[in-house]
Design brief:
This protein is an alpha/beta fold and 181 residues long. It has a single domain, classed as Rossmann fold, CATH 3.40.50. The chain is 35% helix and 22% strand. Strands 2-3-1-4-5-6-7-8 form an eight-stranded mixed β-sheet, with helices on both faces. Strand 4, helix 4 and strand 5 form a beta-alpha-beta unit. Helix 2 crosses helix 3. The radius of gyration is 17 Å and the shape is globular.
């Protein structure tokens, strides 16, 4: 009987988790840390000399967050270029201004994305989103796999952030704004 209840609870948990494209997750996990390095003010965002890459997730997406952390660790082996990094997993409901972050990556959530956008703006860190639609809520970058890999940047949010990117990055992004995503 206990096994049946456990199985039902596990299946119910999976039903409420978001569906993710594994290839897209890996592409984002490969590229987003490199974009963090293009922030001219990155040294001001280090925490104890490290980049703190914070992954924000819904409760039901904890395993997805763990998988992303594992993929990044296997790909980068403790360093984004010359900077050591730490990956912090933060459940969406626990995210606050006190959350340590040099950059934030947000998985899909049923919560209000404007909370994340406000925190990101106050902290002055780069915010990445799994979902392109979240850029309209105040996040900065998303990446999609179309005919080729396309990096999207919300140009309206760029002006409100305390980040300054190398010009070479701005030459390769596709700009969107809140009106015409």
């Amino acid at each position: 009987m206990k096994k049946i209840i456990f199985l039902i609870l596990t299946l119910a948990n999976l039903l409420y988790a978001h569906n993710y494209n594994e290839v897209l997750l890996k592409a984002q996990a490969s590229i987003f840390p490199k974009i963090v390095l293009l922030d001219k003010k990155l040294s001001n965002k280090l925490i104890d000399g490290k980049i703190v890459y914070t992954i924000v997730y819904d409760k039901n997406d904890y395993q997805t967050a763990l998988d992303i952390r594992k993929f990044i660790d296997e790909s980068y082996d403790g360093h984004f270029d010359e900077y050591e990094y730490k990956i912090s997993l933060v459940e969406f409901s626990d995210l606050s201004n006190e959350t340590q972050a040099s950059a934030i990556y947000v998985l899909n959530t049923s919560m209000n994305m404007q909370k994340v956008a406000k925190i990101v703006k106050e902290k002055g860190v780069v915010a990445f989103s799994y979902d392109l639609e979240n850029l309209k809520q105040g996040l900065l970058f998303s990446l999609l796999l179309e005919k080729s890999t396309v990096l999207y940047l919300n140009k309206e949010n760029l002006d409100t952030q305390k980040v300054d990117f190398l010009d070479s990055l701005l030459q390769i992004v596709k700009f969107i704004d809140n009106d015409n995503g």
